[in-house]
TrEMBL record:
Protein name per UniProt: Protein kinase domain-containing protein
Protein kinase domain location: 32-333
SMART domains: S_TKc (SM00220)
Protein family according to the UniProt entry: Belongs to the protein kinase superfamily.
One Pfam family per UniProt: Pkinase
Residues covered by region (Disordered): 318-337
Organism the protein comes from: Oncorhynchus mykiss (Rainbow trout)
Length: 337
């Protein structure tokens, strides 16, 4: 038993040491101390999230690190595509400033071994708290493993995400393009923030009242990190290569379903035959059975049903979703964990 524990301890120490050495060569460490590995998130859960502090002010931050060893198995072209996609996502997030988007405190830095950037202090991704533990330390931190989302917290969190989408769609004429659990981050105060702008699309005519978005065709041969999460994508992305703000609203509907269903999206997608998967999904969505939504609170169930409509213009917009009011919360409800 003791030798097994020692073996486990040495494995954990080795992984931590490998990651620490990967970060050590990164310019981000000139200004920031990198601490404990606490969470994971972002596209494909590929970013490891660490506690950190700014050396000059002792200000608390989160340090996001992508270890390039994760893409060693790919050919150079694919590797470069993945790195460029991740860099684009962080650079876009850095440019955008809004209380409902994750706040970047230090921009992306690249070294031979990793990409790294710093944000406001973070607790975990929504994926982590709903039981998706990829790229987390072993053993999984107790505060994540034992975390329970209260109803009031969930409803307020979803309102915050709707406000973030409203800013993107109306304020900057942008479609997020990959809204899913791993791209929603809970900060240290429990606020829900959007990240993961790797596949965001800006309007081609931002000054016009009616924005236009140019959607890329799905390329099944690309590495998964070069593609949005298909289980949260609106059907029109895949089947008619079109998208607009309503496509993000479909993704919000899937996020809402997942939050009330232990992290499960509405459909599992066969990534090897995505077109067939989405055609079947379209058929099921057009006759969505009430049992599929029975875990969603009654006061938002009808909205979720509309968000999951196959017809984009039936879906409520982000501004409408910010006005959805839940019944008053019981005074016994608490946000403490």
């Amino acid at each position: 038993m003791e030798s097994m524990l020692n073996k486990l301890k040495s494995t954990v120490t080795k992984v931590t040491a490998d990651m620490t050495s990967a970060v050590m060569g990164n310019p981000v460490t000139r200004e920031f101390e990198v601490g404990r590995h606490i969470a994971s998130g972002g596209p494909g859960m590929c970013w490891r999230i660490y506690n950190g502090t700014k050396k000059s002010t002792k200000q608390e931050v989160a340090v996001f690190v992508f270890d390039k060893k994760m893409v060693e198995k790919y050919q150079k072209f694919d590797k470069d595509q993945i790195i460029e996609s991740l860099k684009r996502g962080v650079q876009q997030l850095t440019r955008l400033r809004h209380p409902r988007l994750l706040t970047v405190q230090h921009p992306l830095e690249e070294s031979r071994d990793c990409l790294a950037f710093c944000t406001e202090p973070v607790f975990a991704s929504l994926s982590n708290v709903l039981g998706q533990w990829d790229n987390l330390p072993s053993p999984v931190p107790t505060d994540i493993k034992d975390y329970k989302l209260y109803d009031v917290e969930t409803k307020y969190g979803l309102l915050q995400i709707s406000e973030g989408l409203s800013f993107l769609h109306s304020g900057v004429k942008m479609v997020h393009g990959n809204l899913c659990l791993e791209n929603v981050i809970l900060n240290k105060s429990g606020a829900w923030k959007i990240m993961g702008f790797d596949f965001s699309i800006s309007s081609t005519n931002p000054s016009d009242a009616e924005p236009k978005y140019s959607c890329k065709e799905w390329e099944p041969n690309l590495p998964p990190l070069c593609l949005p999460n298909p289980e949260y994508l609106a059907p029109e992305y895949i089947l008619s290569v079109s998208c607009d703000a309503a496509s993000d609203m479909y993704s919000l509907g899937v996020v809402m379903h997942a939050v009330f269903n232990e992290g499960k999206p509405v459909f599992q997608v066969n990534k090897h035959d995505i077109f067939k998967s989405f055609s079947r999904q379209l058929d099921q969505l057009s006759r969505l059975s009430p049992t599929m939504l029975n875990k969603i609170p009654e006061e938002v169930r009808e909205h979720v049903k509309m968000l999951l409509s196959v017809t984009p213009n039936v879906r409520p917009d982000a501004d409408q979703m910010t006005k959805v009011r839940s019944p008053p919360v019981s005074p016994t409800m608490t946000l403490c964990h």
